[in-house]
Amino acid sequence: MERRKFTREFKLEAVKLIQERGVTVAQAGRDLGVHGTVLRRWVQECGADSQQAFPGDLAPLNGSRSYGRVGPKGGLHAAAASHRRTDSRQIA
Fold this sequence. Notes:
- Helix 1 crosses helix 3 (36-46).
- This protein is mostly helical.
- Helices cover 38% and strands 0% of the residues.
- The protein has a single domain (8-81), classed as Arc Repressor Mutant, subunit A (Orthogonal Bundle).
């Protein structure tokens, strides 16, 4: 299985859900399909200055998989917000 890559915008929106909207890490993780440990790391990396957070996360090259489309109003796209694991490891 190839490692998933998330856009800078997706990470910032996920952090914003937790810090500004009061969504728990556990709930955000379930909603976004991202492990809580990853979300906690993103919150820590974002720190006080979100402008400097995730500097190496550029747009992916053609053909690579990327998660985290941002909707037209700046929020997480509905498909990203309702992402659920659909591979063979899904628990019934």
